[in-house]
Structure formats: C-alpha cells, structure tokens
Amino acid sequence: MSHQDEKQGHASRTMRTQRLELRHPELEDAQALFDAYAADPQVTRYLVWRPHKDATETREFLALRRALSSTGASYCWVIRKLDETSPVGMIELRVSGTQGNVGYVLARSHWGHGIMPEAVVSVVEFARSALSLQIISSCCDLENPASARVLRKAGFDYLGVRKSHFAHPAISHGARDVQFFELRLG
C-alpha cells in the first residue's frame, strides 16, 4: 500500500460485487469517464453540474473528488463492470457525523441493467461496516423516476418531496423539487 493509499484510508478500498468493481478514481480515468457520460447532456441532465466540455474538465472534477476523499468528508468510487475494461460510472458517499448522502451517475448505455442498485448496496454495506453510519439519504429530481427506482431497489424508504431543494443547471437556473429517500442502518 502506498503512502497516498494509507492517507486516504478506506477511500482507497476496492469493492467487488457479483458484476462490478468499485475503486478509487484515478486522474487517468478522466478520458474514459468523459467518453462514457460526462459530456452526455442526457446523463448529466439531473446532476448538480453541467456536461463537461472536455476531458480536462473531467480530470479537474476527479482531482476535487480525490482531495475531498483525503479528508474523510467524501468517499468516491468509479464503477467498472468486471467484464469491461473502462469505467461506466461513479458513486460518491458524502459523510457528516453519523449520516451520509449518496449520489451517482451512470453511462446511458448501461441504464436499466441493475448496475446502479448493485453499486449503491455495496456502498451502503461499506458505510455500515467501515464507517458505522446510522443513516444514508439521497434525493432525485421529480422528473427522474429511474433514479427513484434505483434507491427503492437498494432498500431506501421514500420520505416525500422537498421543494426547491437542488439546482440542476443543465435544465433550470433555480432550485428544483426533489424526491427524498433515506435508509436507516442502525
């Protein structure tokens, strides 16, 4: 284990599921992630950032995620299908005390194949065992039912709508209503 891995602790842990590998992002992943989804306006429609213009922007995003991971405030993984070489998405767990919040993104070519619920469940298990979190929450735009299905499949409970909660700059200038979900781990 390198000094950088020791400094990042659990964030550098690679997790495997039946079909997936979740590993800490590397700056070298920028081009593959840019090609897979970061420039796709359909994929980034409900995210808190706009589609990337080039792989340099994706690289800067990865550098920020790595910096946050080194503080323990965030744990981020790229998602790769075991039968493929390039990553197909990312998932992040943001931590505050005994609570976490999960967000994710997946290449459009992999939508509807059960990949993201599998990744979310893996991150939930990490949160439970390695971080002893008590609650994990997540939200999705009201117009994004696919993301709501991911959270339900991963065992999250629907708690209702939060008005004007998040801005999704790819589709509006103001904050939008979201569906809010929570999973109690204790």
Task: Note the main attributes of this structure.
single chain; alpha+beta; 5 helices; 31% strand; disordered N terminus
What does this structure look like?
By secondary structure, the protein is an alpha+beta fold. It has a single domain (3-135), classed as Gcn5-related N-acetyltransferase (GNAT) (Aminopeptidase), CATH 3.40.630.30. The protein has five helices and eight strands. The chain has helices at residues 3-8, 30-38, 55-71, 115-130, 145-153, and strands spanning 15-16, 20-23, 74-81, 89-96, 99-106, 135-141, 157-167, 175-184. It has an eight-stranded mixed β-sheet with strand order 1-2-3-4-5-6-8-7, with helices on both faces. Helix 2 (30-38) packs across helix 3 (55-71). The longest helix is centred in the middle third of the chain and has 17 residues, at 55-71. The N and C termini lie far apart (32 Å). The model is unreliable at 1-10 (pLDDT under 50).
